[in-house]
Amino acid sequence: NARLREQNERLLRWQTVARQLEAENRDLRGLLNFKSGRVPNQITVRVIADSGGAFVRSVLVDAGARDGVEKGLAAVIGLGLVGRVIEVGNRSARILLVTDLNSRIPVMLAGSGQRSVLAGDNSDRPRLLYMPGDLEISAGERVVTSGHGGVFPPGLPVGTVARVGSGEIRVEPLIGWSELNIVRLIDFRRPVDELAGPPVLNLDPGR
Length: 207
Hints:
Elements: H1 2-32, E1 34-35, E2 42-49, E3 58-61, E4 74-77, E5 80-88, E6 93-97, E7 104-109, E8 115-119, E9 127-129, E10 142-145, E11 157-165, E12 168-173, E13 182-186, E14 200-201
């Protein structure tokens, strides 16, 4: 019985390790689907801690100034934008997620081209601000970065319209935040070749 209990404990530990590796592989496969359309500075990092301090919706990652991380870098997953770097230490950095109260991102509706600002309020679904009251918007419409301000390039996916009503428009981000394990930090602020196009997503895993 003692040997069986010991074997069972070992199997449970290996099962936990296997699940962690499975989640990591899923995240890495997702990042392979992201193509920036250019060759900016970029680094893949691991989330090591959840939010803390003044920023309610933020995460820490395991790379910092010694790895070339700078404030303002975009944080993306395979589907698109999840936030930006706001604090950098020597060995770690903090990413402000698009849902944080301090987050403001210039965006537009992919269908109509209507510009707006995606504003976090510490809920799971940020709001669209400064939208015309007579504009017809449907749930499921894609929301992408507009490129205004030069921090993010135009066309980077951010989420989809989740709810329209009660005088506000809510956006469903690209990921459940509890699933955020690995992200890629990309510097879109550097000048790039004029022939380089906007970011695109390769949704075909075979390519």
